[in-house]
Amino acid sequence: MLLNPEQVALIGQVFESYVLEHHKNDILNILQEPEEDAHYPVVVNAMTLFEANMEVGEYFNAFPSEVLAVFDNALHRAAVSASQSLPQQKDCKIKQNLHARISGLPVCPELTRDRIPRSRDVGHFLSVTGTVIRTSAAKVLEFERDYMCGKCRHVFSERADFEQFYSFAPPTRCPSEDGCASYKFTCLGGGASSPAACRDYQEIKIQEQAQRLSVGSIPLCSPEVQ
Ligand SMILES: [Zn+2]
Q1: Alpha-carbon span 194 to 172, nearest angstrom
Q2: Average pLDDT, stretch 143-152?
């Protein structure tokens, strides 16, 4: 985590009150949906959010994946507090999988691209304009597995490797703080037969739009992106 606890608290508070002010109806609608384990998006306009608090905008641009996780937690707290405002007889269920989806990024060179992003853009949150030329079927992706150390019985999770097409490499060392030198690990549940931690996954292939490029440039196709 690159953000300190005060920054996390600030971002969480700002986002929680922002969504309660601007997206309370979206949240109330989600609370009345029947499916408890489904994933629900709340689409938040970046420009309006960053105008409400510029500092949050700066943190978001610098540490997007950390900040998105803070947003999702704040969304959950906002949902709990919104549910308390509903009359008792309303059938409402708190959902475990609420996600802030940030749209409408400000048009500036750091955040928007007309060309396929390069390797130096890895880890940045960007808006890319292009034509979708192929989409794969939506799939379920297993992204995390739990392992137990055979020696000290320490339990830890490993993430699927994005750069290896979301495959799992067996753990090579025990992350226990006791300096355990074990090299034997048992996979706890999960695995191909009954994956435990999954998310939706779809590959989309996009092509740059020729009319947006300078004369003489050739539109490139992206490799498939998630
Ligand atoms: Zn161990």
Answers
A1: 23
A2: 90
